[in-house]
Structures are given as C-alpha cells and as structure tokens.
Design brief:
This protein is of the alpha/beta class. The chain has 19 helices and 12 strands. α16 links the parallel β9 (392-396) and β10. The radius of gyration is 28 Å and the shape is elongated. The chain binds adenosine-5'-triphosphate. Residues 238-468 form the ABC transporter domain.
Length: 476
Amino acid sequence: MSSGVLHRAGDSPVHRLPPQVKIVAAVVAVLCVVATPREAFWAFGGYLLAITAVWFVARIPPTWFAARAVIELPFVVLALVLPFTGHGPTTDVLGVPLSVEGALAGWNILAKGTLGVLVSLTLAATTAPQDLLLGLQRLRLPSVLVTIATLMLRYADVVVAEAKRMRVARISRGDDPRFLWQLGATARGVGSLFIRSYERGERVHLAMVSRGWTGRLPDGRGSAAVEPVRVTPGAPALLVERLAFAYPDGHQALFGVDLRVEPGERVALLGPNGAGKTTLVLHLNGVLGGGQGRIEVAGLPVAKAHLREIRRRVGVVFQDPDDQLFLPTARQDVAFGPANFGLRGAELDDRVARALDAVGMAEVADRSPLHLSGGQRRRVALATVLACDPEILVLDEPSANLEPVARRELAEVLLGLERTMLMVTHDLPYALQLCPRSVLVDGGVVVADGPTRELLADTGLLARHRLELPFGFRLD
Ligand SMILES: Nc1ncnc2c1ncn2[C@@H]1O[C@H](COP(=O)(O)OP(=O)(O)OP(=O)(O)O)[C@@H](O)[C@H]1O
C-alpha cells in the first residue's frame, strides 16, 4: 500500500473528493458501461471523453495509464480471437473471412473491458489505498469484507515490495528484463517472487496469530473476553524443559532446550545464525508446537486448551515490523490484538492510547504504519504487542536495521517497561545494556547461561559460537 502501487499522489479536486463518493461514482460508471448496448459506439466514445476529462482535472498524464493498461491483456486476446472463432455470417478483411457476430462480441469485450480498467485505474490513481478502505467503511460495507479487502491490499503490497526489491537486485547485476533472452530469468524471478511473497504472508499470519487471531475477524461481536486463568503462585515466568523440535521437512532445530526465567527478569537470547533462537521463541506462545518437552508460562502449560491465554501473556515482537503491521492506521494495528482478546469500546481505546504513549508514538496514531520510518515502525510494532498487556515480552532482534539514535531511543523505551523480557539479539552491546542475564544457544541447545557481562568477557566461548563484540567495543 505504502509503495503507492497505483496511487499517484496529487492535490486536485478529484484527489480531494471523499473516497466513498469516488467509489460510488466508479461503480455507477462501470455499471453504465456494462449496460450500454455494444452497437452504441458514440456512447463508448462519450465515456472515454469523460474519463480523460477526469484525468485532465486530476493532472494524470495518459501515459501513466498506458503503462498500466497491460492488465487489460486478457480482454485484448479474447477480442482478437473471437472474430476467427465466431459463428454466423462472415465478412472478408484482406481476404480473411471474419465472423461478424464474433467481431461484435470482441468489440463488446474490448470496449467494456478497457473502460472498466480505465475507471478502476482512475479511482486507484486518485485515492490512496487506505482511503479506499475508509470509503468502504463509510459506505457501511460489512466489516468482514473491509477486513478481507485490507488483508488483500496488504498482500498486494507485500508482492509489489518483493517484486521491486528483486528487480533492483537483478538490474544491479546487469540484467535487463526487457530483452527476450532474459525471459527465462524473468520466469524464474516470478516463481521465486511468489514463494517469497508466500513466506512473507506466512510471517504476517504468524504475527497475527501471536496477537490472538483465531481466524475470526474482530468485528466487534465475535471474540469473547479471555477467561482469567489461575496463575500458580511462585511459578517461574517461563519454564522450558528438554524442548526438542523438528520442522515438517525433517530439519531438527532444537535438541533439548532447558530454560527458566523468573518474573521480572530481562534475559538476552544469544547465538549464531541458525542456532534455533527464533524456533525457540515461537514455541513460547504456541505458534510452533508438536515437538517434545515441556513449556510453561507462569505455571500454565503451553497447550491447545490455553493458547488464547498464553498468547495474551506472552507478547512476541517480530524481527521485521512489516510482518506485524498490516492495517490502514497505526491505531487500528495497535487495537488488533486487544480486540482479539475481547476488549471493546472505551477500554480498548484507552489500552491503545496507553500503548502508543508508552512507545512515544501517540502522534502517529492515525497515520499508515507503512508510511513511518523504520524506527517509528519498530516502536508501533512494539505498541501492538504492549496493547495486549503481556506479562512476558519476547523481542526478536529489536535493534536490527535501526540507526544509532532510534536504537538508543528504543532501549530507553524497553528499559522503562516493567516486564519479564526475553530478547533475541546479535547486538551484544544491546544485550549488555538491556539484559543482566544472557543465555547462549547453539546447535539447538543452551550452551551457556549467566550474567551477560561474564558471558561477553569469555572470548573463547564467544569465538566457539561465532559471536564477536563490535570493533572498538570494550567491556570496562
Ligand atoms: N520453516 C522452516 N523449515 C525448515 N527449517 C527451518 C525453518 N525455519 C528455520 N529452519 C531451520 O531451523 C534452524 C534454526 O533456525 P532459527 O530461525 O530458529 O535460527 P536462529 O537462531 O533464529 O537464526 P538467525 O540468528 O539467523 O535468525 C536453522 O537451521 C533453519 O535453517
């Protein structure tokens, strides 16, 4: 959405029209086009004239539409085939007999298809995707449909963003997708684009599941409040015993992990790439399961019967904030989790406001998260989890891709939160700053556990597990 796939930023009377008015106008225009008899050639000319007048007012050059008209290709192909395959009387064109009925049917499809595409492109060009969703909401479309449209837009955004990244990567390696001999590479690129988009979609889904999503849309009626479950007094915040797990493809990632975290502790989870850190944390709120061993959260076993309560208690902030943010505004994204857990009305609004406030993001509440900077997005992603009021905060690489100031500001926010915290990180100074205790995982088992300063001072241990303090960093 943010990438403005189709939306062309501008400030014209057309851009300024309320989105619901534009949606209704577009639907009426398409219905008129469809209802027009195919022989009324003048009417189609009139429609085209009206559409170009809108482009003129909106200051969108026809070339912009020409470049995107490729989506019309199926209509063109069909329109070209029909004169050859149609029945009835024929007429000779350059010695080739063409079906009159087929030609008229082809024209009908081409004219109406083209006008339909142009109307849709005009709407998309002059209305930001999030405004389109707002327009649908104002038109009182069932909230279920608006949510589905939101998710579809988010997915389209994911596909376009991946496609752009892959295109840049290809072009920078000397590839030029315009040439025919690059067709093979382009085809392979499309295949891998879909796999990557699917994987991204999976991660967005995991982040949704982690915030209480059960497949039911939070439409204000569906979710019941979470029943409070009795906490075992004196139980550790987290208890993991002999946890072993293999992915469905047979790859074993965990080989018997033991971990105990007391309430209020802040623990860093360190380890080289592929050590099993993410696999471990995804077990803590039951997103991954089916392995062997025991996991308890405040004495409550992580089992199917308690998953809702477990997910309310264990908030997972994913590594990439884009996996966590998918709704039109930051406020809606932050409300997603608590709404799934049954909060409504003033209570929900209050929870959202407090979470945004806690991360210093109250002023961006009504902006699209996808238009925020990387640091702001990470804070909003944290707010989406804080709003669920979890007792345990699990953060996967919170400082990744942050500029130094944003990294420090996030550390200040995290230090101000009084919660049990488990932080997966490769950023060893960050671990030292935020977590008095560190657990080192490698090869799917815990290989060291102790005060962060002591672990980081053990250069032999770090070297054996491919960890290294940054150049110039000294442990004083
Ligand atoms: N969906 C999957 N299917 C199969 N194997 C997987 C899957 N996800 C992860 N793995 C494998 O499991 C092992 C542990 O991966 P995991 O992502 O937990 O490591 P990590 O410690 O978080 O690594 P990193 O620091 O690189 O993020 C790796 O060998 C990885 O290739």
